[in-house]
Design goal:
- The structure is a homodimer.
- Chain A is α/β, with parallel strands linked by helices.
- Helices cover 38% and strands 23% of the residues of chain A.
- The first copy, chain A, contains 15 helices and 16 strands.
- Chain A has helices at residues 2-13, 19-40, 43-54, 62-76, 140-151, 169-176, 178-181, 183-189, 229-241, 293-312, 334-345, 373-380, 383-386, 423-426, 439-459; strands at 82-94, 100-104, 112-113, 116-118, 130-137, 155-158, 194-198, 224-227, 246-250, 254-268, 273-283, 319-326, 349-355, 363-369, 393-395, 412-418.
- An eight-stranded mixed β-sheet of chain A has the order 1-10-12-11-13-16-14-15, sandwiched between helices. Chain A has an eight-stranded mixed β-sheet with strand order 3-2-9-5-6-7-8-4.
- Chain A binds chain B through residues 34-35, 38-39, 164-165, 167, 169, 202-203, 362, 364, 387-390, 392-393, 419, 421-422, 425, 438-441, 444, and chain B through 34-35, 38-39, 164-165, 167, 169, 202-203, 362, 364, 387-390, 392-393, 419, 421-422, 425, 438-441, 444.
- Bound molecules: zinc ion (2 copies).
- One zinc ion (ZN) binds at residues 283, 295-296, 329, 357 of chain B.
């Protein structure tokens, strides 16, 4: 006691602000979070199970149910104050077993199979498939300029590549993804019979990247597939030499009735302000190929790790901390929507929600979306505490799909920002598997989220 | 002319410092460097050739000779002012064909093979191998405390793991590597018959990591191998249950006569200050396993890319820019030593040397070693120009093995600093292969070096 008083007085004499000793305490606490995560972190082994033993887990699938039960059991082991399932009805789309595509009837090449994946939500082709000429466009604008005459009866091939000059690959993704989400309906409106979309990918390989499409109300629903980047390059090249070649597409995906599923929630109750809630989350569902490792198994295990680290440090948060594993981010966002709905109905006060859904790569920072400048400035004031861990990118481009529906004036929506260079090589592909995840990168991510949660819990936001 | 005068006056009226427009010009120039590297970069395809077609290339090997010829031809294509080979005699150590190790004569397990790799430079075992009890230590200090009595006739097993709490894995490497470099001689002095070293690795797997050892003058030279981290864990566990178990080791590496080899140098002559030289470099040799992809194929292709980008932008540097592919970093440093020797003899004035030898991962910054504070401050003043590319870590921990011998008061020795999380999973293993390299990460690294070279060339350092 005497000693700390002395310290305080000395600090006063030296004109050091009181904040300095708090900062030092914070710095030590954060250091301990990282030490624990790097030496005793559990995320990597948890992720191994989720990806290798359960695997791909599209909403409505048996594997999604297994993932729910797994997440519940994992959090049950952690001695939290509360672990519960939140009911949510989810869409149930299945790929079918007949996905096949080929370049046919070309003067310059024999029938040539190409790798495609139905876009999530796509309708089927006729049972024997469909065959049509192909019209290649770089954009929806270009498509509209072609008009009905040139599109009617054809397969529209959207082939605008990633803009590689973006340093953050997510920006390139956003610049290309309208082809996949809106392309099918825009083509349908002009009488096209199907859509082939160049994969939203940062690399060139044989893996097609699936992802959701959005059929517009009233527009004809036509089948749509993603083609691998290599396949797209081949098709484009052949079209230049022979614009009468045809494309054959056969697939039988279908929509089944909605299925009861769950968000999985674990909670440590706040000791001083239990009514103020801080959420960390990722989504538990994935596409139906690969293992949903970086998208978004990593976000789930990192979110659980935040609670586990608190527990193993014996830290009692002032506010209530929740890890939420959202269901159905990929093709419906029903989990995120339901979570926000319930929160609103119960009058819950969320002060911050952090989502990890950009891969389990080396942490680079956080995007913080808030309507309150003071909130952003408070987060910025923690820069020196986060910089030693490589968390330099603190900016306003925050948010996340699942936490989006929580948006109101009181909550900061925060996106965990890992290094982006590798994500869109494997995003939504059969290649998004456990072996692409590095243990240290993954654990550093969980620790980074835990550090931010610690600061928000201690100082508010 | 009128227009630019007008602009200048306006700037003057608005009290903008003249520097602002230079900064803007720099920012545009750097942006263009990245655009070019990301869209038309050649490093990745060059690296594919070097790693997949030439492969591992230990000094003195035929593959090292192939790498020299390849690098010369690649730079010849670029239309540089000068491409030349600098002669250097290099050591020639070969691994032999009989590497074998097993845990034997244990009461609790049948003979159990383990994965080992001779340390570079190790002497051979007797032709039939050697078999001895094992004494496990965590450090050279602990070994010395055991003393001759407990070490004599035994195999010393250095098993201190990486300290995972370091955020930069290179720090953990430095904290463990004395076991490999000095361990064999220290054990030899106490009468040990061989040394087994836990791999200097950030992960746990079956790949042993080789690397150089340094036999001390006058100390007995005993055979030494690296054991994989999994193997080390097994051995340590078994020793706890049965400290009389024995280890069998058989290998026949040997030293052959020195071989004539070369540093490969490409140069663009400076237009204003041709006598001031800026070096970018990596090392062309690798260990004799894997493909030497991240160590250090990436550094070589990135260095060439710096010159190529200048050429393709039509940029004429004021100072002379040299890309140097150093020979024999791994087991002798003869190339780096020779380069500095010749530079000194010819009275060359190097103002900066940048080495990329920490993997082709996402760029994080530069370490800048200089004896002149003003030099460091000048580099720091470029922070805002580099930050948009994720280059936040500008500190004083600079340098690199090959450029080290250039050290004097006039030259800044700069280490390119990529993200470190994955490097020591694969460093010096059979797993350091092309498929571990991501195209965008690699090209971003070359662009980052090119951006720094541009600034140093323009403003001096
Ligand atoms: Zn996702
Ligand atoms: Zn190296």
């Amino acid at each position: 006691m005497l000693r700390s008083l002395k310290k305080l007085t000395l600090a006063g004499l030296l004109c050091l602000p009181l904040a300095a000793s708090a900062q030092n305490q914070d710095s030590l606490h954060i250091r301990k979070i990282y030490d624990l995560a790097l030496t005793q972190g559990q995320s990597y082994e948890q992720l191994r199970y989720l990806t290798s033993r359960i695997g791909a887990r599209l909403s409505g699938s048996p594997q999604a149910a297994a993932a729910v039960e797994w997440a519940r059991q994992e959090m049950d082991k952690m001695g939290l104050d509360r672990v519960y399932l939140q009911e949510v009805m989810v869409p149930h789309w299945v790929r079918g077993d007949k996905e096949y595509a080929a370049i046919v009837n070309s003067k310059i090449t024999p029938t040539r199979e190409v790798n495609v994946l139905a876009l999530g939500g796509s309708v089927a082709t006729p049972a024997n498939g469909l065959t049509a000429e192909v019209v290649e466009v770089q954009s929806i604008d270009e498509l509209k300029k072609l008009g009905k005459k040139k599109v009617q009866g054809k397969i529209v091939f959207f082939n605008r590549p990633f803009d590689q000059t973006h340093i953050i690959t997510g920006h390139a993704y956003r610049g290309a993804v309208d082809q996949r989400s809106s392309g099918p309906s825009e083509a349908g409106k002009l009488g096209a019979v199907a859509v082939v979309v160049r994969s939203m990918a940062s690399n060139t390989d044989d893996f097609p990247h699936t992802g959701g499409l959005r059929y517009a109300d009233g527009a004809p629903r036509i089948p749509a597939v993603a083609i691998s980047t290599k396949g797209a390059d081949v098709l484009s090249k052949l079209l230049k030499e022979d614009d009468k070649l045809q494309f054959h597409l056969r697939m039988n995906p279908q929509w089944l009735p909605d299925v009861l599923s769950y968000n999985v929630i674990g909670e440590i109750k706040g000791s001083e302000k239990p009514d103020e809630i801080i959420v960390v989350g990722g989504h538990l569902d994935s596409w139906d190929i690969g293992e949903g490792a970086h998208d978004d198994g990593t976000g789930c295990v990192q979110s659980m790790e935040v609670l586990r680290l608190m527990r193993s440090m014996g830290y009692k948060p002032k506010r209530t901390i929740r890890a939420v594993m959202f269901m159905n981010e990929e093709n419906g966002l029903r989990g995120g929507t339901k979570y926000a709905e319930v929160a609103k109905k119960q009058g819950e006060k969320h002060i911050a929600a952090i989502e990890s859904d950009a891969g389990g790569f080396t942490p680079r920072g956080f995007g913080i979306a808030t309507t309150t400048e003071a909130t952003f400035q408070k987060a910025l004031s923690w820069k020196d505490l986060l910089a030693p861990y490589g968390l330099h990118d603190i900016d306003r481009n925050g948010g996340g799909a699942d936490i989006g529906p929580l948006k109101d004036d009181r909550v900061a929506l925060i996106g965990f920002r890992p290094d982006s260079q590798r994500y869109f090589d494997i995003h939504h592909t059969a290649n998004d598997t456990f072996d692409k995840v590095n243990r240290r990168e993954l654990e550093l991510g969980g620790a980074s989220m835990a550090a931010l949660v610690y600061l928000i819990d201690k100082y508010g936001l």
